[in-house]
Prior knowledge:
alpha/beta, six-stranded mixed beta sheet, 20% strand
Amino acid sequence: MRYLLFPLPLLALIGLVAVFATSIDRDASLVRSVLIDKPAPQFTLAAVDGIDVPGFDTAALQGAPTLVNVFASWCIPCRDEHPLLEDVKAETGIRLFGINHSDAPENAAAFLAELGNPYDAIGADRDRRVSIDWGVYGVPETFLVDRSGTIVFKHVGPLTPQTIETEVLPAIAKAQS
């Protein structure tokens, strides 16, 4: 009987290695948010001190499609995607709101002073509570909210020219129609 139980830990280890090996190249952006096709969570975010745009709340997402970008000054991919956000806003005219995730206000202000501020509103999410409600598990993440306040699109990770062309712009066009 003991000899029959001996290979069980080895088989369990082999099974775990197989699961991890098949998941290692998985695209994190393929994770579908449970919030898609649901109203944006209820929240109120104060403005980030030192930045000349207001904070925002759930009600501000009503009336026009809005791209909501979760970012932080300490996030290297956020720096890389920043010019792409500016380009999307210039090309589509969409409202762009930012959720400043777990960041010191002076660092967020310096980040935007250096790179430019494309945001129409930025809310300070210092305690990450609103980000959690939105289902954010890392920055950057970008959401598209339609004119009724419903989340219709989510992209996990930094935007790239390819994801903008194949995912973001079509989603914006659909939301604006």
